[in-house]
Design brief:
The chain is of the alpha+beta class and about 180 residues long. About 35% of the residues lie in helices and about 30% in strands. The protein has a seven-stranded mixed sheet with strand order 1-2-3-4-5-7-6, sandwiched between helices. Helix 4 links the parallel strand 4 and strand 5. The two termini are about 30 Å apart.
Length: about 180
């Protein structure tokens, strides 16, 4: 099944809400907010409009009705002390994992980060999300921190949170040196 990577538009709010309902709760723990709450999607769209978030969708094109197969967001605070850092948030539909959707979204986020002049990228996930960890590490992210019992699911169980980072400035310099 083919997918198209494009910007998240306010007209997509119901598609994104439907996508969020397909995700296991464990996949959402690193976000800090419950994506299944309508106000969270509205706040996300507001942050996009305000320029704090760049957000992309992977939309399956072969379905009768286009559906969201994945999302990626680059979150930054241009007014803060870490304006040179962007946080990457990636979600892929369980039935589309391993099909290149996450990789395509991350590569598009890398291009946005380069255009925004970001020097470092971070990503948060639970350490047991081995597919996500492997994808990010395969693209050059490295483990930087482990926060014990940082997030708690609806069932009350605590989970560790891994923070991975990517030296975007070094990557961009390397690409420029090799003419990529």
């Amino acid at each position: 099944m083919s997918h198209l990577i494009r910007r998240f538009d306010p007209a997509d709010r119901e598609r994104v809400a439907a996508f969020a309902r397909t995700l296991p709760e464990h996949d959402l723990l690193f976000l800090g907010r419950d994506l299944n709450h309508p106000r969270v999607i509205e706040a996300w769209l507001e942050a996009i409009g305000d320029g704090w978030i760049d957000s992309l969708l992977a939309v399956d094109q072969d379905a009768a009705e286009p559906r969201v197969a994945g999302t990626a967001a680059l979150v930054r605070d241009p007014l803060g002390w870490s304006a040179h850092v962007g946080e990457v948030r990636l979600l892929v539909s369980p039935d589309r994992r391993g099909a290149g959707v996450g990789r395509d979204l991350l590569e598009a986020i890398f291009a946005i980060a380069r255009d925004r002049g970001l020097a470092k990228l971070t990503a948060r996930m639970t350490p047991d999300q081995s597919g996500s960890v492997a994808l990010f590490e395969g693209l050059g992210f490295r483990a930087e921190a482990l926060l014990k019992d940082q997030v708690r699911g609806r069932d009350g169980r605590s989970h560790d949170l891994a923070i991975l980072s990517f030296d975007a400035a070094r990557h961009a310099a390397r690409q420029q040196a090799f003419g990529v």
